[in-house]
Write a structure and sequence with these properties.
The structure is a single chain. The chain has about 260 residues and is of the alpha/beta class. It has a single domain, classed as 3-Layer(aba) Sandwich (Rossmann fold). The chain contains seven helices and seven strands. The protein has a seven-stranded parallel beta sheet, with helices on both faces.
Length: about 260
């Protein structure tokens, strides 16, 4: 098992991608703290998966402190932090209110900052004990290029990309590796909301009627699953990735590799 005897905390752990990461980490032998607003998250009910649930609003400093104190009290250190919590607002700059803009940055950027800030001392303890400490943020291919109608989301993901590089430089000497996963279209509740919304996702269309169009725009003719993301997260969290740091790992089925106006 790749993560045997490691301690991990995952934010957004009851969402589509976060839940897949928790499941994979548990299979790989990690002790996992699943942090989210509620035990149910995006599902209708909570299924006990063997993880330790932590109530965490990533926008609240007190919650971030309390979550890390719980880990410290139980284990003394933290090997892996995954900042998977995030929200998406489907509006242009003109349509976005200041409250929506601030909320987007509070969850996607400030939330990443707060959990990282209070996790790093625990991760330094893990590194000082001779273990590999890995901090994994969630950016997006929308931090490189942009989908229409996602102005605030794109801006927050660009911020996460820059923060990831900065933390990798600052804390590499501490033995902490910092990377970001940058997903493209992944089959999650957020994607379904995007397609069913009135914004850029499909003007209220049913996701089933749009699946073929989504697949066809990708060179691989498919979109990803939460398990695809969890596979890469698992590798970055493991000792096999001991030399990987400061990178933005795009996982989008080749979508951002192509020149869109040349696509036939």
């Amino acid at each position: 098992m790749m993560l045997n005897n490691k301690v991990a905390l995952v934010t957004g752990a009851r969402g589509g991608i976060g839940r897949a990461i928790v499941t994979r980490f548990l299979k790989e032998g990690a002790t996992v703290y699943a942090a989210d607003l509620t035990p149910e998250g995006t599902l209708d009910k909570y299924d006990d998966d063997g993880s330790h649930f932590v109530t965490l609003d990533v926008t609240k400093e007190t919650d971030a402190i309390a979550a890390m104190e719980r880990v410290r009290d139980a284990h003394g250190s933290l090997d892996i932090l995954v900042n998977a919590a995030g929200i998406e607002i489907e509006k242009t700059v003109e349509e976005t209110t200041l409250d929506e803009w601030n909320r987007s940055f509070a969850v996607n950027a400030t939330g990443t900052f707060l959990t990282s800030k209070y996790a790093i001392p625990l991760m330094r303890e893990a590194a000082n004990s001779g273990r590999s400490a890995s901090l994994i943020n969630f950016g997006s291919y929308d931090g490189f290029i942009a989908d229409p109608g996602l102005a605030a989301y794109c801006a927050t993901k660009g911020a996460v990309h820059a923060l990831t590089r900065a933390m990798a430089c600052d804390h590499g000497p501490d033995g902490i590796r910092v990377n970001a996963i940058c997903p493209g279209y992944i089959d999650t509740p957020m994607l379904q909301s995007f397609f069913n919304g009135d914004g850029s996702g499909g003007a209220g269309g049913d996701i089933k009627t749009l699946q073929k169009a989504v697949r066809d725009v990708h060179p691989m003719r498919t979109y990803g699953t939460p398990e695809d993301i969890a596979n890469l997260v698992n590798w970055l969290a493991s000792d096999e990735a001991r030399y990987a740091s400061g990178q933005l790992w795009v996982l989008d089925g080749g979508l951002s590799a192509q020149v869109q106006q040349m696509k036939l």
